[in-house]
Amino acid sequence: MAWVYLLIAGLLEIVWAFFMKKSAGFTLLAPSVITIVAMIASFALLSVAMKTLPLGTAYTIWTGIGAVGAFVIGIAFLGEAVTPMRIIAALLIVSGIITMKLSGGH
C-alpha cells in the first residue's frame, strides 16, 4: 500500500506544481487554493509511505514523479520547449527512479 500512497503523492506533486504556475505568484485564488491543498495532501501521503519505505527511495521516487510529470505537463499544456537535452534529462530521471525502485528491499 505504501507504493500506492507514494504514487498518488507524486501525482499530487505534479498537480500542485501546475497550479502554482497558474496561480500567478499566488495572486489568483482558485489555483492558489488548489496548490496548497494538493501540497498538503502530497506531503501527507509521502509521510505515510515513508512509514514503511526507506527515506532515500521514497523521496527520490516522489521528486522524480513530480519532476518528470511537471516536465511533461509543461510541454503539453504550457507550451514549454522540447529539446534533446531536456528529453535526455527526463529520461535520466526516469532511469534513476527505475533503478531506485529495483534496488530497494520493499
Please provide a written account of the structure.
- Helix 1 (2-22) runs antiparallel to helix 2, helix 1 runs parallel beside helix 3 and helix 3 (55-78) packs antiparallel against helix 4.
- The chain is mainly alpha-helical and 106 residues long.
- Helix content is 81%, strand content 0%.
- The termini are close together.
- The chain has helices at 2-22, 29-49, 55-78, 84-103.
- It is built from four helices and no strands.
- The longest helix is centred in the middle third of the chain and has 24 residues, at 55-78.
- The radius of gyration is 15 Å and the shape is flat.
- It has one domain.
- InterPro entries: EmrE-like, Small_drug/metabolite_transptr, Small_multidrug_res.
- It holds the Pfam family Multi_Drug_Res.
